[in-house]
Amino acid sequence: MPYTYAVTSHSPANPGAVFTVLVHGATWPSWSPIDAVQIEGGGDPEGPQQVGDTRVFRTGRAVSRERIVELVADRRFGYENVSGPFRSYQGTIELAETPQGGTDITWSAAFEPKLRLSGPFWRWYLTRFMQRMADGLADYAGAATHRDPA
Questions:
Q1: pTM above 0.90?
Q2: Which parts of the chain are beta strand (E)?
Q3: Given its phi and psi angles, is residue 41 left (phi above 0), alpha (psi -120 to 50 degrees) or beta?
Q4: Quick check: 104 and 10 in contact, CB under 8 A?
Q5: Neighbour-count burial for 50-74, b at 16+ CB within 10 Å, e otherwise
């Protein structure tokens, strides 16, 4: 049975600034609970990632691998988890410019856990974890916009 979650946050930054942060894996430890990021195959986490890149995230002793499956500039970042406790996991980060300025961020996923009956736990955990991710992204992109007013 598939489970879902969706969280939202608002950034004062425009969608382009938020998207730039998303595609640069090296920024993720600065704004999220993730400790370290590597690009599988030796890619450069400092540069922008592309569809097909797999990023390895380390958080404490936990390691997850996520492949980028969709990039729509300034609008959408799609990924799938390719290891860990899920049979399937498809995540999407949607960016929408707001009339008052800034960007609404919606981070959502549909997933199916490997371990039977663990779905409610994972939905609870991921909703809270990803809210921290969305809020960190919103704040970081907003602060970067204020530091670099170009």
A1: yes
A2: 3-11, 36-39, 54-59, 62-72, 76-81, 86-97, 103-113
A3: left
A4: yes
A5: eeebbbbbeeeeeebebbbeebeee
